[in-house]
Design a protein that fits this description.
Blueprint (H helix, E strand, L loop, with lengths): L26 H14 L5 E8 L2 E12 L5 E2 L6 E2 L4 H16 L25 H5 L18 H9 L15 H15 L3 H13 L5 E2 L3 H5 L6 E2 L2 E2 L7 H5 L9 E3 L1 H12 L3 E2 L2 E2 L3 H7 L3 E3 L2 E3 L4 E3 L15 E5 L3 E6 L4 E7 L11 H13 L25 H7 L9 E5 L12 H7 L4 E7 L16 E2 L6 E4 L9 H4 L4 E4 L11 H15 L2 E5 L11 E4 L14 E3 L4 H11 L5 E5 L27 H10 L19 E4 L4 H9 L6 E8 L11 E8 L7 H15 L10 H4 L2 H8 L4 H7 L1 H12 L5
Parallel strand pairs: 17-18, 17-21, 18-20, 21-22, 22-25
Antiparallel strand pairs: 1-2, 1-16, 2-3, 4-8, 5-8, 6-7, 9-10, 11-12, 12-13, 14-15, 15-16, 19-20, 23-24, 26-28, 27-28
Helix pairs in contact: 1-11, 2-5, 2-6, 4-5, 15-16, 17-19, 18-19, 21-22
């Protein structure tokens, strides 16, 4: 795990117009009206609302006042707020997950490992995970007079308590559970929660105004909460138990600002990374935000996802959204599927504790989530015809449907498809064609991994499609090219499958072989085009050697070709002189520089081990190594995001790769044990790849740094003889094995790559 303790820049997130991040212009006015209504109803003195999408702030506004007594002060964007229970996820569970990542804490650990006294009254089996999801069976609170300013002494009071429910069976929101978790952070790290979270999380991210017990400068612009013993609380924690503990507790006590929370939220949307700082690794974040269901309530590890406390959640947020609220009137929700965050900060308890904002926060979240569109209409790129493409991205199947299936009308259609064959609303192409009165769908063909995309083995057999009762001919079984018998009743072959932009991903070969079959049998081939998810601008890697063609290398193109399958179909037809009637139904609204996250299109796992856009971007580099004696993460939750073997020292390899100073990626040492595939059940030392800048990252450059490092460090262990199976360039392989470095390797194929750029230019359609 990368240790982070330095102070990063406090530069806030950039701001952008709604249309620039694919949101409905005018949604901010709806938020303004919703807030104005609640201010008029005196539900709060004021608030700050921030909405961010695609890395930019699109709404940031202060409303009303931050204090009414002892004097009126207007709300400002830099107001410091008492986070209340937002402390639980932001400080406490973040710290716990960092300790989990380092191996200092395990989710399955029993609390008694850290506090043996906790075993009293049958609590000996309660785990850290159960406390994080409020399933430990503990009471919500304890009398304030039980506490002293000594945290560990106060925790013993909790240890003495009887549980109020059976652990693991009942959802019982408990401040006491998070008080224990805060103390576990101190036990496991040797630092109090406030010091650990600030040094390990907040300062490295540039969250310089996030802390327990804020300093005098921050207190001066803190929102006042209530009056206690004749004194207005300003910069002093509102929660009485946290106050009794000196302002530092696992359940409450954190203070922060809108700008700092925006940085935190965006960091989680960036897979836990910001400015080359890794707060948590992607696999940790995935576990952290995976919902657990407890008696009908969905909770993450410290996060709310869908529970009785979710009134402040936007109703149109995706099922992946996670967030939390705080008693003082704070909430934050983060939606990875929409790439959206919504922050609502108020001091609704001022001046008399009678304010109410949960419904307003939820309403604002709904407005923001509902405003998210499918694409980015501003800053469009020019198409190859010099016209500006605007509006949502339309897939080939959607363009075909909009044109009333004109190229298929009156024809008998055989469709090559799988689970990725669908429109932007995930409606299956099979269903679309079967329902279209203009189309006579008579046969289906499936590629590697089968029609449902779940079969991870060779020799897939023919089946029958359940809904349509049509035959499904496997093109990854006895044959990989449609046969004459299979095509006898077909006039047109339609190909509609999502590729990932890498030469050795086999859907390209399936299309090429179908093109050959169509030519041989006198059929038309229609390609329903789709965007290249890893972009259509960058081209990387050696061109396949002539004569090395195979099912994982159908045509002499580089490893990362930067083309759509429709464009490649035109290239293959021309360069292989395939005499076939080819029709490409183009997508609309896609720009060559767009990665999939810019299109608004949903990600669908393209194969069993291609589970995210991150993995697709890494695949042209990391995937090259899977024919050798290293694991590339098959059998783990993060294939192609890790690489290792039992004989690899992860620290050593990470240091060596990082020494090449690759742009846009950091390499971290890890230990993992595959549950399937290579090294199944064996502990592997290795590395994890974290993309820090998508525009700068080059996966094939990473491959050369990995390969050169393996040759230098493990020349007797790494077996490179099968590396050329996917590389398909003998000169580069020989140089790599001979000790050449990354720059020397790139020089070998520089001229071939330039020639390919010229070849492909005449086939670019976007």
């Amino acid at each position: 795990m990368l240790l982070v303790s330095s102070q990063a820049s406090a530069e806030p997130l950039p701001q952008a117009a709604a249309s620039a991040v694919a949101m409905r212009p005018g949604f901010s006015a709806d938020i303004d009206r919703a807030v104005a209504e609640q201010l008029e109803a005196k539900k709060m003195p004021g608030c700050v609302v921030v909405v961010g999408r695609h890395g930019s702030i699109v709404h940031k506004q202060a409303y009303g006042n931050r204090s009414l007594q002892p004097e009126v002060e207007p709300m400002t964007l830099d107001t410091v707020f008492d986070m209340a229970s937002l402390t639980k996820p932001i400080a406490t569970s973040t710290s716990i997950m960092r300790l989990v990542e380092r191996g200092d804490v395990r989710l399955r650990d029993k609390v008694t490992k850290y506090f043996p006294e906790f075993a009293a009254h049958g609590k000996d089996d309660i785990t850290v995970e159960q406390l994080l999801i409020h399933a430990g069976g503990l009471a919500p609170v304890i009398a304030t007079d039980k506490f002293t300013d000594d945290t560990m002494e106060s925790m013993l009071k909790i240890c003495e308590m009887e549980p109020v429910a059976e652990p693991g069976e009942v959802f019982k929101y408990s401040d006491l559970g998070f008080l224990m978790l805060g103390a576990i952070v101190q036990k496991a790290s040797g630092q109090p929660l406030d010091e650990y979270s600030r040094e390990q999380v907040f300062l490295p991210l540039g969250m310089q105004e996030t802390m327990f017990n804020p300093n005098e400068q921050l207190c001066q612009r803190a929102a006042i909460t209530e009056q206690v013993d004749g004194t207005w609380l300003q910069g002093v924690v509102h929660d009485p138990r946290a106050r009794k503990l000196g302002g530092v507790a696992g359940h409450a006590g954190l203070f922060s600002t809108a700008d700092d929370l925006a940085i935190y939220a965006q960091t989680l949307l960036n897979n836990g990374q910001r400015n080359n700082v890794s707060v948590v690794l992607p696999q940790t974040l995935r576990e952290w935000t995976t919902p657990r269901e407890i008696a009908g309530n969905k909770r993450g590890l410290g996060w709310d996802m869908g529970s009785v406390y979710s009134r402040n959640r936007g109703e149109t947020m995706s099922p992946k959204a996670f967030g939390h609220g705080g008693f003082t009137g704070t909430s934050m929700w983060i939606d990875p599927e929409l790439d959206l965050f919504v922050i609502f900060l108020s001091n609704r308890v001022h001046p008399n504790g009678k304010g109410e904002v949960n419904d307003l926060a939820g309403r604002i979240g709904t407005i923001a989530a509902s405003a998210c569109l499918n694409s980015t209409p501003e800053a469009p790129a020019e198409s190859s015809e010099g016209k500006v493409a605007q509006g949502p991205v339309k897939l080939g199947i959607e363009v075909l449907a909009a044109n009333h299936f004109d190229v298929l009308e009156g024809k008998r259609v055989g469709l090559i498809a799988n689970h990725t064959s669908c429109d932007s609303q995930r409606k299956s192409t099979i269903e679309i064609l079967a329902e279209a009165p203009e189309v006579n769908l008579v046969a289906l063909f499936s590629p590697e991994h089968g029609l449902k995309g779940v079969e991870d083995h060779a020799n897939i057999g023919d089946t029958t499609h359940e809904a349509t009762k049509l035959p499904v001919y496997s093109l990854y079984g006895e044959t990989r090219k449609p046969t004459k018998e299979q095509l006898d009743g077909v006039d047109v072959i339609v190909f509609d499958i999502q590729d990932i932009g890498c030469r050795f991903y086999t859907y390209l070969s399936t299309m090429g072989l179908a093109m050959e079959a169509a030519a041989e049998q006198g059929k038309t081939l229609v390609v329903l085009d789709r965007p290249n998810p890893i972009g259509g601008k960058l081209v990387e890697g050696p061109v396949l050697d002539s004569g090395s063609e195979s099912f994982v290398g159908f045509h002499p193109i580089p490893v990362r070709h930067g083309m759509t399958l429709g464009e490649l179909a035109q290239m293959i037809k021309s360069e292989k002189s395939i005499d076939v009637e080819l029709i490409v139904v183009k997508t609309e609204g896609w720009h060559r520089e767009d990665y999939q996250y810019s299109t608004g299109l949903p990600w669908i796992d393209t194969s069993p081990n291609m589970r995210s856009l991150t993995e697709a971007v890494l695949y042209p580099g990391v995937g090259l190594f899977e024919t050798t004696n290293v694991s590339v993460g098959r059998g783990t939750d993060t294939p192609f995001e890790v690489l290792g073997a039992p004989w690899i020292d992860g620290n050593q390899l990470a240091e060596k790769i990082n020494a090449y100073q690759l742009a846009g990626v950091r390499v971290l040492p890890v230990q993992f044990t595959p549950t399937a595939s290579k090294f199944e059940g064996e502990s592997c030392g290795g590395v994890n790849f974290v993309i820090t800048d998508w525009d700068e990252f080059r996966p094939v450059d990473l491959a050369w740094a990995i390969g050169s490092s393996l040759v230098e460090l493990y020349s007797e262990d790494w077996e490179s003889k099968r590396f050329n199976r996917l590389l398909s360039n003998r000169a580069v392989l020989d140089a790599l094995v001979g000790g050449a470095g990354p720059q020397e390797l790139k020089g070998i194929y520089e001229a071939d790559l330039a020639e390919f750029q010229k070849r492909r230019s005449q086939f670019l359609a976007y």
